[in-house]
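We modelled the chain as a single entity of 489 amino acids. Its sequence is:
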Amino acid sequence: MRELLVRSETMFQPDSSRVIARFLFTSTERSKNIISSLLSLPDREQQQVLSRVLRRYSKRHRNILKIFERHFRKLERVFNEMELQPGSLSLSQKMLIGAYFTMEYSIEAAAFFNPSIMEDPDQSSVERGEKRIIISFRATGEGHISSIVFRSAIIDRANRITVETPGRMLDSPEHIRNHVFKKGSFLRKLREMQNFKDIAYGLISEKLTETFTYEELKRYVEEVRSGIELDESSSIFLREAMWLASSHYEMDFSLDTDISERVIFPIADTEKKGIEDARFVRFIDEGGAATYYATYTAYDGTSILPKLLVTEDFYHFKVLPIHGEVAQNKGMALFPRKVNGKYAMLCRIDGVSNYIAYSDNINVWRNAYLLQSPVFPWEYVQVGNCGSPIETERGWIVITHGVGAMREYVLGASLLELEHPENEIARLKTPLLVPNQKEREGYVPNVVYSCGSLIHNESLIIPYAMSDYASTYAVVKLDELFARFESGG
């Protein structure tokens, strides 16, 4: 059977020269030794060392002195132990110390994969038949830590994607923990994570007001820690409480950054080992306003936590965890509008099959219903979504991934009823995309994977990753896809 899609020759590849400046801290004792050594240098030598750092690195980072200052402030506890008053230091000394606690991190040195594609909020100055788009990627560097990065592009009337030249001065946002928690929902989420019944749970429950902030919770936790002798269960509870609270935050990027320079790097404890597989969707509310959501998986090295990223302009982002019994696995994908007055989400709660869930609250999901189980040999291991459903007059198109023999990942396609998407109309019997000889070699062999597609000029545009290393895209004409659905796949 003739292959439905046409592969592009365009490649999106990792670039090891794209770096951000991260805080570098090993231990308190080593930090004391470094600071003491620096301050023992003659003033002239201190200035020479700082000047050399600025010559080598100031053109690689936007406002590097601000970065050094921010990292210097993170050493407050070390200064206290040294009985050193930061106010007694000169500006140059502060910047020099900050430089020694800064490191460059190549965000996409290892991989540039699992793309998601969406319409840009700004559609000015585009030609007829063109569309400005944003492509998100999972970028992975040293230690396999993943972040979210973006590229701006134009897709023309022939469905060719031209990516704008990426900016070089990458920017990490300053984050603000200003979320206000509700006591009831916060304790309920903690109980979902683990059935706590120890003394620390009771003490925190008593201290919490009906609403509270991260800093207030931090104070309550410190009071409990200092007031009782903690057993293992209490220690775990207090750690989990802070872990959950730290996963709510907001972040802002500088207005002078290009979207390709904005890096959403792990901030919270819940995601310190990576932000994985963001599935972006342009969500339209009942009034016609657009908000961009992304569901992603936060990984702390041991546990995963589904989370939701929210933005309207790609400058200001809000992050919050997804609650409920359904929020237990990877691969949640939000529908681009409400269905019958409710939010709708695809998910894979058992790790094997595709489920659908409905909710009145976008970040609380209680019940899910089986939608698709593995049917064909190429999906016997598992079937899941490859991004948010795509609305057409004939139903919701869902790009799926199936895993078969030799853990080979392929892409498939399904069609769901428009107003009752819990009903599957059709499913392709053969894969839409199988890794070819070029695509099957990489960090994780024999894998093609996508986190979101869109429709342009009566075609489905599917960006996809090749074996967890680089990415490309393919094009499927909608009329040919529907004809294949009608013929039985």
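As a brief sanity check on the tokenised model: The radius of gyration is 25 Å. The mean pLDDT is 93.
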